[in-house]
Amino acid sequence: MLSSPEGEGAGVRDGRAAPATASLHSPSASSRTSHHMGVKHLPAYLDEIAFKYNNRDNEHVSRETLRVLVTADPLTYQELIED
């Protein structure tokens, strides 16, 4: 049995270690959506949540985001998926 800070057996299924994924729940009470993702994508997800929180009162956030997206350098699919 594996041990962890969460207690004995946490992260173990059928005697096997669970994969390294994060399970995050949407802060929106209306959606009740769970997101499961690999550790690789966790920083980007947390950046998105922080951006939304920090701009919650910005009435021009859509316009500003669109301006940045239109003027940014293009991102190729290979750049997107590389480690």
Keywords:
83 residues, alpha+beta, 4 strands, 17% strand
Classify the helix fraction into a percent range. Answer: 25-40%
Structural class: alpha+beta
What order do the helices and strands follow?
Answer: EEEEHHH
> What is the spatial order of strands in the main beta sheet?
1-2
Give the rounded overall mean pLDDT: 75
Number of strands: 4
Gap between N and C termini? 31 Å
Radius of gyration over all CA atoms, rounded: 18 Å
Based on the structure, what is the oligomeric state of the protein chains? Answer: single chain
Shape, principal axes of CA atoms:
flat
In DSSP terms (H or I, runs of 4 or more residues), the helix count works out at 3
Describe it for me?
With 83 residues, this protein is an alpha+beta fold. Helix content is 35%, strand content 17%. Strand 3 (21-25) and strand 4 form a beta hairpin. The two termini are 31 Å apart.
Give the SSE map.
Layout: E1 12-13, E2 16-17, E3 21-25, E4 34-38, H1 42-54, H2 61-71, H3 77-81
Antiparallel strand pairs: 1-2, 3-4
What is shown here, in short?
By secondary structure, this protein is an alpha+beta fold. The chain contains 3 helices and 4 strands, in the order E-E-E-E-H-H-H.
